[in-house]
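Handout for the seminar on molecular recognition.
Each group receives one record of this type.
Step one: identify the two inputs.
Step two: read the structure output and locate the region that could contact heme C.
Step three: write two sentences on what you found, then compare them with the reference statements printed after the record.
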Amino acid sequence: MKKSYQFIIFLVMLGPALQVFISCNESAKGALVEAKASVANTNTIVSIDTTKIPDDKYGDEVRYGRELMLHTAYYIGPNGINGKYLGNKMNCSNCQQDAGAKPYSLNLAMSFRNYPGYRAREGRVLSLAERINNCIMHPHLGKPLPLDSKEMVSIMCYLKWLNDSSRVDNSTKGIKNLELTFPDVAASPERGNVLFAANCARCHGLDGEGKMQPNGVTYIYPPLWGPKAYQPGSSMHRIVKLAQWLMANMPYDKATYNKPVLTSADALDLAAFINDDKIHKRPFVKEYQYPNYKEKAIDYDRGPFNDTFSDAQHKYGPYKPIIDYWESKGMKPTF
Ligand code: HEC
């Protein structure tokens, strides 16, 4: 009874876009099943079973938290039914796929354990709630959720459940993104443009504008740049970080982390194309972060840095000389 009621809500929510969306979700599930199968009985990859969310009050919050991450714009988007917090119509799950449960997709299974924690970007210790609000304010261009709101509490309950139920630590496979093999040359936006037209435009549009659901609530295919996409300074705006994510996750219907479609060089070229601010406009951003520049990620898009490499080399590479230099000085490069 409860299930069929949920399904009707689902139908109403998604309307005519349902079929396409289901097929997207199915392929995401397919990837997860495949990932589980390939490492059967080893418990070395992040995996969860949502049927084990408890059937009690805490479980209700966990389920709503997961729902919020999957259908963020529907609940708290610009026309959200439970509050208007986001400035765009993207969902958390567009990047943290399967609500942060998918391996190698900016996975969130460790968040509950890693926060409160120090973050170089802010140069201070953040609570988990502050970290969540960072995403609401930056990639989502929104205003922060009140700390005692049902939405904030539910997202935190979901992240706690994700951590409890997946038995992970920071070395579990799939917590971090895939590692790239760095080429000796800088990433090329021109080559990325060609790869984009061949591999990505069929869903995201030739101009990266994405495709909105007919009911206007959220996207079938989210935008990659333009005023409604993530803003500069978001993690996805860093070329190495985006390339690692792309290798494991895109094209959506073809790539899995253990069978990527893109090579490291392809992914870097594509990321350079997507994140080239001279070619692609993004929402205006007031502040650039990392108060202590010595802690800045090496692929951040503007200096100063704790070395003498140019800002362009930091943004586009080649990255190996930068990494080698940092390691030779006993410093730990982050990217
Ligand atoms: C079959 C359709 C499809 C193809 C092809 C595809 N994507 Fe996606 N992409 C998606 C969907 C759907 C999502 C959202 C995933 C989710 O919500 O779980 C997404 C999400 C993304 C995101 C993160 C969200 C955002 O909008 O910033 C990026 C970046 C991205 N895709 C880049 C690419 C690139 C680059 C390619 C080509 C190599 C590509 N995609 C090919 C369907 C596709």
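Reference statements: The beta strands are 117-119, 124-126, 211-212, 219-221. The pocket of heme C is lined by residues 24, 28, 91, 93-95, 97, 199-200, 202-204, 221-224, 229-230, 236, 246, 250-253, 262, 270 (CB under 6 Å).
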